[in-house]
Design goal:
The complex is a heterodimer. By secondary structure, chain A is of the alpha+beta class. In chain A, 64% of the residues lie in helices and 10% in strands. Chain A folds into 2 domains: 12-39 and 130-297, Multidrug efflux transporter AcrB transmembrane domain (Multidrug efflux transporter AcrB transmembrane fold); 48-125, Alpha-Beta Plaits (2-Layer Sandwich), CATH 3.30.70.3400. Chain A has helices at residues 16-36, 43-46, 61-70, 99-113, 127-155, 158-182, 188-218, 224-256, 258-289, 294-297; strands spanning 40-41, 48-54, 77-81, 83-91, 118-125, 185-186. Chain A has a 4-stranded antiparallel beta sheet with strand order 3-4-2-5. The longest helix of chain A has 33 residues, at 224-256. Chain B is of the alpha+beta class. Chain B has 4 domains: 6-11 and 441-600, Multidrug efflux transporter AcrB transmembrane fold (Up-down Bundle), CATH 1.20.1640; 30-112, Alpha-Beta Plaits (2-Layer Sandwich), CATH 3.30.70; 145-226, Gyrase A, domain 2, CATH 3.30.1360; 284-424, Gyrase A, domain 2 (2-Layer Sandwich), CATH 3.30.1360. Chain B is 49% helix and 23% strand. Chain B contains 16 helices and 22 strands. In chain B, the strands form 6 sheets. Chain B has a 5-stranded antiparallel beta sheet with strand order 14-15-13-18-19. In chain B, strands 2-3-1-4 form a 4-stranded antiparallel beta sheet, covered by helices on one side. In chain B, strands 11-12-6-21 form a 4-stranded antiparallel beta sheet. The chains are: A alpha+beta, B alpha+beta. At the A-B interface, helix 4, strand 5, helix 5, helix 7 and helix 8 of A face helix 9, strand 21, helix 13, helix 14 and helix 15 of B.
Chain lengths: 317, 626
C-alpha cells in the first residue's frame, strides 16, 4: 500500500504567504479570546472545592442547586459531568470556613435531599496552592522554550530555533484559544497535554529541518525555496503517517478514556492537528523568511568537495 | 552489512528477560490478606510477631499462602476472603487480649498474588495512584512561623534564667515576634549579657543599640538555627502523623515531606474522610502529675481498696497500676524537647527533657518540695491515659533540664523519648489540599485507561502491518517491546501509576511509532531511488537515526521540564513520558534493527524487502520539457 504518489516536489513555499496570514489571523483570534473570555481554570488553579456526586437515576440539578444554596454557600456551580446521573459541584474558596469541612457538610445535605447520592470524588485546594501551580506551570513553559531553543541552536542554527519556537508557541496559543472560546475546563492534565504538544510539535519541525539540512548538502544547485519544498515533500508521508498513528492513540483516549481524560485528549487532538500544519507552513516558512541559506548549516562545506557515499553527489536535478 | 554481532543479541535477550520478569507481577492481581501493625511506638513488630502469627494460624487450622515481615508490619496472604476473615478474627483474639487497650492493629488488606520467587527478585507490581485505587489525599501545611515563635518563646525564658544565674541585672526581657529584646541600664551589664549570650546561646545572633537612656540588646534566631528548628518541626509532625495514621489500619499509607513546609498524606482505600481528618488533627497530650502516696492509694494499687478522692488509677506500660493525683503540674505544652542519652555518672540509659521557662520554674518549685516522692509522666491518647514512667525525685531540679532514669535499656529510652516528642505536633498544621476518590471510580479509571491504551495500540498495529507488511510487523513487535519495557521500568522504580500516567503511556506509544515510520519511509525512499535491498535497509536505519535522536532529545527536554516543575498529575504524566522516550529509543531503533537483521541480514542475495508498495514515478513518463 502507498498513499503518497508524489511525482514532483510540491511548491509549498509558493503559498507560504497565504498560510502565514491564515496562521496570524487564527493566532490573533486565539489571543483575543484568551483575553476577552479568559481560561476556565479548574479548582487546582483557583482553589476551592470540587465534588463529583452520582445518583442512581438522572439527577435533578435544580434540587441539587437549591440544597446547596440552603447551606448559605454563594457562587456555587452545578453541572452534569459525563452522564446525566453524575453531577459536578464547584464551591469557591470561602474565608473563615475550613473548606475541608465544606464537602462533608454539602454531602450530608445532598444525602438528606436524595438518599441515592453517592460521593465519587471530592477535591479541595487552598488558594495558595493554586497560585503556586500557575507559577510552576509558567516556569515549566519557560524552561521548555529555553531548553528547546538552546538545543536547536546548537544542533542546527539560531534561525531554525527561532522558527521552531514561534511555530510551536503558535500551536500552544491556539489550543489555549480553543479552551478560552469554548470555556472548556483548563486543568493540570490539560497543562501537561499542552506542554507535551509543544515537545511533539517541535519533533515535527526537527524532522523537516533535518531534511532541509540534508538537502542543502545534497543538492547544490537548488535555491532555498526549492530545498524547503523538496524537504517537506519527501517527509510528508512520514509526517502524515506519524500524526495519524498518534492521533489514533489520542482518539482512543478521547473515546474510551472517560470524562477524566476528556479535555486532556481534546487538547492533544487539537495540538496534533495544528502541529502538522504549523511545522509545514509556519516553521519552515519562518525559517525561510529569516533567510536561511546553505552557509548557515554547512560549516566549511565549500572545502569538502563530495561525499563519496552519496549516490547523488554532483548530480543535477 | 546488516548483521549484529552476538553481544548485541545478548543485550536484547537480557533486556527482554528482565522486561518480562519485572512486568509479570502486574498480572497476578491481588489476594486478600491480613496485616498486623503496631499501634504505639513502644510496641515493636518483628520476626517474633511473625512467628506468633504463624503459630496462631496453625492452631486455628488456617493455611496462609505466605506470611511475610515487611518493614514494621506482618502480612499474611490467603486464597479467599473467607479464610481471610477467619484469620483476622483468630489473630485479633490472640494478639489483642484487651480490646480496650490494643497494642496491635489487625487490618484487612490486599496483597499482590505474585509468587515468592518474583518477590525474591524484588519484582513488585506497579504502585497504583489514588485516582486508580480510590482513597484520600491530603496536603498539610505546617505553620513554621508558629514553630519559630515557640522556639523564641522558650529561648526568652532560657535567657532570663541564665542572666539571673550569672547575676546580670537587666531592666526587662520581651519577646517581640521572633526577636527577643533585653534592656539594660548601663554598658557594662550589656557587655556581660552579650558574653553570656555568645557563650550559652549558639543559636542566637544579637545586635545592641542605644534606646533613649537604655541599652537594648535585640537577639534573633540565626538563619541556620531557624532552618534546623523548621526541619525538626517537620520531622516531628511527620512522626506524629505516622503514629496517628497507624491507628486507621491503612495498608500502605504515604506520609512524606513536600518542599520545606508541607506534608503529603495519602491513605489508599480510606473512604471515611471525616474519621481520617479527626485522627490527623487529634492532639495527644502529655501531663506531669504527682503519684498519690497515701496509704489508701497504696491499698488501691494493690486492688484491695477504692481509689481515694482526688486521685485516678492509671496503668504503667508494664501493666502495673499507679494511683495518680488529679492535679496537673505540667502539660506537654511546656515540654520543648525529649532526647535519649546516658547518665554521665551511672552510665544508665536516660531520657533528657527540656522544659520551657514557665515549665522549668514550676518544675523546680515542685521538685524542691517533693524530694523522695514519685512523679508520674502520663500520655493521653484517644482520651485515655497511660503512665510512661514514674520516677522518684532525688533532688531539686532547676534550669528546665530534667532527666528521667530508672531501669531502662538504651532502646527503651529511645522509644520513650520518641513517644514524648511524638505525642504532640511541633507546629500547627492545616489541610490545604484534599482529594477523595471513591473505589468504584478508581476501578473505572483503571478500566478506561487500560482500554484507551489497548484499542489505540491495536489500531496502530493493524495499520502498520497493513501498510508496511513485514516491516510493519517488526515495528509492531518493537512497539509491544516498548510497552513491556516501559511497564517493567515503572515497576522496577516502583513509580506511582496514575491516570495521567496511563494517558502518557498511550501518547508515548503513538509517538514511539514515529521512529519506525521514519525508518520505514526512509527504506522505501532508498528503494525508490534504486538502492539494493541490503543497502536500502542499512541506509534507512543510518539516515533516520540522526533525526530520531534530535526529535527525541527535544521531547526529553519537555519531559524533564514537566518533571522539575510539575506536581501531582503533571508529575505522574512526566515520569511515564520521560521513561517512555528512553525505552522507545531502545526498542524503536536498536531492537527493531535486531529483528530486521535477524530476518534479512543473513541472506546474501536479497532481492526484495517486504515493506509494502514501493511506488516509483513512471520512468517513461513525459519529462518536463525544456
Amino acid at each position: 500500500m502507498e498513499f503518497f504518489k508524489i511525482k514532483r516536489d510540491i511548491p509549498f513555499m509558493r503559498h507560504a504567504i497565504i498560510f502565514n496570514v491564515v496562521s496570524l489571523v487564527t493566532f490573533l483570534a486565539a489571543v483575543f479570546f484568551l483575553f476577552s473570555r479568559g481560561l476556565h481554570l479548574s479548582v487546582e488553579f483557583t482553589g476551592g472545592t470540587l465534588m463529583e456526586v452520582t445518583y442512581t437515576q438522572p439527577a435533578d440539578l435544580n434540587l441539587v442547586r437549591s440544597t446547596v444554596a440552603k447551606l448559605g454557600l454563594n457562587d456555587v456551580q452545578v453541572q452534569n459531568f459525563g452522564t446525566a446521573r453524575d453531577v459536578l459541584i464547584r464551591l469557591p474558596v470561602q474565608k473563615g470556613v475550613t473548606s475541608a469541612q465544606q464537602s462533608v457538610q454539602v454531602m450530608a445535605a445532598l444525602k438528606a435531599a436524595d438518599a441515592s447520592a453517592v460521593m465519587r470524588r471530592t477535591e479541595f485546594v487552598g488558594p495558595q496552592v493554586g497560585d503556586e501551580l500557575a507559577a510552576d506551570g509558567l516556569k515549566a513553559l519557560a524552561s521548555v522554550v529555553v531548553g528547546i531553543m538552546l538545543y536547536l541552536s546548537i544542533r542546527f542554527e539560531w534561525k531554525f530555533a527561532v522558527a521552531a519556537i514561534i511555530a510551536n508557541l503558535h500551536d500552544v496559543v491556539i489550543i489555549l484559544g480553543f479552551f478560552a472560546f469554548f470555556q472548556w475546563e483548563f486543568s493540570l492534565p490539560v497543562l501537561a497535554a499542552v506542554l507535551a504538544v509543544l515537545g511533539y510539535s517541535v519533533n515535527e519541525s526537527v524532522v523537516i529541518f533535518d531534511r532541509i539540512r540534508e538537502n542543502f548538502r545534497r543538492y547544490r544547485k537548488m535555491n532555498t525555496m526549492q530545498i524547503i519544498d523538496s524537504a517537506i515533500t519527501s517527509t510528508i508521508s512520514r509526517t502524515i503517517i506519524t500524526h495519524g498513528s498518534t492521533q489514533m492513540m489520542v482518539l482512543s483516549m478521547l473515546l474510551f478514556g472517560g470524562a477524566t481524560l476528556h479535555y486532556f485528549a481534546l487538547a492533544l487532538t487539537i495540538g496534533i492537528l495544528f502541529g502538522i500544519y504549523s511545522s509545514v507552513f509556519v516553521a519552515a516558512a519562518i525559517a525561510m523568511w529569516l533567510g536561511i541559506q546553505r552557509e548557515d548549516l554547512i560549516k566549511g562545506g565549500a572545502k569538502k568537495e563530495e561525499d563519496p557515499n552519496d549516490p547523488n553527489a554532483g548530480a543535477t536535478v | 552489512m546488516n548483521r549484529y554481532p552476538v553481544w548485541k543479541y545478548v543485550i536484547i535477550l537480557i533486556a527482554l528477560v528482565v522486561g518480562v520478569v519485572y512486568t509479570l507481577p502486574n498480572f497476578f492481581g491481588e489476594a486478600p490478606a491480613v496485616q498486623v501493625s503496631a499501634v504505639k511506638v513502644g510496641v515493636k513488630v518483628d520476626s517474633s510477631t511473625k512467628v506468633q502469627v504463624e503459630a496462631v494460624l496453625q492452631t486455628a487450622g488456617l493455611a496462609a499462602d505466605v506470611v511475610t515481615l515487611d518493614g514494621n508490619s506482618v502480612k499474611a496472604r490467603f486464597g479467599n476472603t473467607e479464610t481471610q476473615l477467619k484469620a483476622k478474627d483468630a489473630i485479633q483474639k490472640a494478639l489483642i487480649p484487651d480490646p480496650a487497650n490494643p497494642n496491635y492493629i489487625v487490618a484487612l488488606n490486599l496483597l499482590s498474588r505474585s509468587p515468592t520467587w518474583l518477590t525474591a527478585l524484588r519484582a513488585f507490581p506497579m504502585y497504583l495512584g489514588l485516582d486508580l485505587r480510590g482513597g484520600v489525599h491530603f496536603m498539610l501545611q505546617v505553620d513554621m512561623q508558629a514553630a519559630l515563635t515557640k522556639k523564641a518563646e522558650s529561648l526568652t525564658g532560657d535567657i532570663r534564667t541564665s542572666l539571673r544565674e550569672k547575676n546580670v541585672r537587666h531592666s526587662g526581657i520581651n519577646r517581640n515576634g521572633q526577636t527577643i529584646e533585653v534592656r539594660f541600664r548601663d554598658a557594662q551589664t550589656l557587655e556581660a549579657a552579650k558574653e553570656i549570650l555568645l557563650d550559652q546561646f549558639a543559636d542566637l545572633q544579637s545586635v545592641d543599640a542605644l534606646d533613649g537612656t537604655d541599652y537594648k540588646l535585640t537577639a534573633s534566631i540565626k538563619p541556620v538555627a531557624a532552618l534546623r528548628v523548621q526541619t525538626q518541626a517537620l520531622k516531628q509532625n511527620i512522626t506524629t502523623l505516622h503514629n496517628r495514621i497507624n491507628e486507621l489500619g491503612v495498608s500502605e499509607p504515604v506520609i512524606q515531606q513536600q518542599g520545606l513546609d508541607r506534608i503529603v498524606v495519602e491513605l489508599p482505600g480510606v473512604q471515611d474522610t471525616a474519621k481520617a481528618k479527626d485522627i490527623l488533627g487529634r492532639t495527644a497530650t502529655l501531663e506531669v502529675r504527682m503519684v498519690d502516696e497515701s496509704s489508701e492509694a497504696r491499698a488501691a494499687e494493690g486492688g484491695t481498696a477504692a481509689v481515694p478522692f482526688g486521685s485516678e488509677r492509671f496503668l504503667e506500660r508494664s501493666g502495673q497500676p499507679v494511683i495518680v493525683k488529679k492535679q496537673v503540674i505540667l502539660t506537654g505544652e511546656n515540654l520543648t524537647d525529649a532526647q535519649p542519652g546516658f547518665d554521665s555518672q551511672t552510665q544508665e540509659a536516660v531520657v533528657n527533657l527540656t522544659l520551657d521557662a514557665k515549665g522549668a520554674r514550676i518544675f523546680r518549685d515542685v521538685t524542691r518540695e517533693s524530694v523522695g516522692k514519685r512523679m508520674a509522666i502520663l500520655l493521653f491518647e484517644k482520651g485515655k491515659g497511660e503512665v510512661v514512667t514514674a520516677p522518684v525525685i532525688r533532688s531539686e531540679i532547676g534550669g528546665g533540664r530534667v532527666q528521667i532514669s530508672g531501669r531502662m535499656t538504651a532502646m527503651e529510652a529511645t522509644d520513650t523519648a520518641l513517644l514524648l516528642r511524638a505525642g504532640s505536633l511541633a507546629a500547627p498544621m492545616e489541610i490545604i489540599e484534599e482529594t477523595t476518590i471513591g473505589p468504584s471510580l478508581g476501578a473505572e479509571n483503571i478500566a478506561k485507561g487500560f482500554n484507551s491504551v489497548t484499542y489505540g495500540f491495536a489500531a496502530v498495529t493493524v495499520f502498520m502491518c497493513v501498510y508496511y507488511v513485514l516491516f510493519g510487523l517488526f515495528s509492531s513487535i518493537s512497539l509491544a517491546v516498548n510497552l513491556l519495557l516501559l511497564v517493567a521500568v515503572l515497576s522496577m522504580l516502583q513509580a506511582t501509576l496514575t491516570l495521567p500516567g496511563m494517558a502518557a503511556m498511550a501518547l508515548v506509544i503513538g509517538m514511539a511509532i514515529d521512529a519506525n515510520v521514519l525508518i520505514n519511509e526512509r527504506v522505501r525512499e532508498e528503494l525508490r531511488n534504486g538502492a539494493s535491498a541490503q543497502a536500502a535497509i542499512h541506509a534507512g536505519y543510518d539516515r533516520a537515526w540522526a533525526t530520531i535522536l534530535d526529535s527525541n532529545v527535544t521531547t526529553l527536554i519537555v519531559g524533564l521540564a514537566l518533571l522539575t516543575f510539575g506536581s501531582g498529575p503533571v508529575r505522574g504524566f512526566a515520569v511515564v513520558h520521560v521513561l517512555g522516550i528512553l525505552t522507545s529509543m531502545f526498542s524503536g531503533v536498536f531492537f527493531s534493527r535486531g529483528l530486521v537483521n535477524l530476518w534479512y541480514g543473513r541472506q546474501n542475495k536479497l532481492k526484495t524487502v517486504s515493506i509494502g508498495t514501493i511506488w516509483r514515478p513512471e520512468p517513461d513518463a513525459p519529462v518536463a520539457p525544456k
